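Continuing the series of single-chain predictions for the mutant panel. This is the parent chain; the variants come on the following pages.
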Amino acid sequence: MFSLLNTFRIVALLEGVSYILLLFLAVPIKYFGDDPQYVKLLGMPHGLLFVAYIILAFIVGSKLKWNTKTLLFVLAASVIPFGTFYVDKTYLKRVS
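Parent structure:
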């Protein structure tokens, strides 16, 4: 059975992949190729994954008793490309 931590790790991975696809694939196609279809296609799933990541970060952070600095770092990582992968490797993988 999936634990809350494993669920957060999966959401972090999917959020990171969706952000990279949106930032480095869909947005350039929108502005350089004049085709907003990919942004529309990837935008909503990324937004839902982002919200799920933030909510799960608070829940997992309280369960793991993260201090404020750690929680803020984990939250900030969601807006930095490849940040969620670093969080998984540094904060989540060693716990599971």
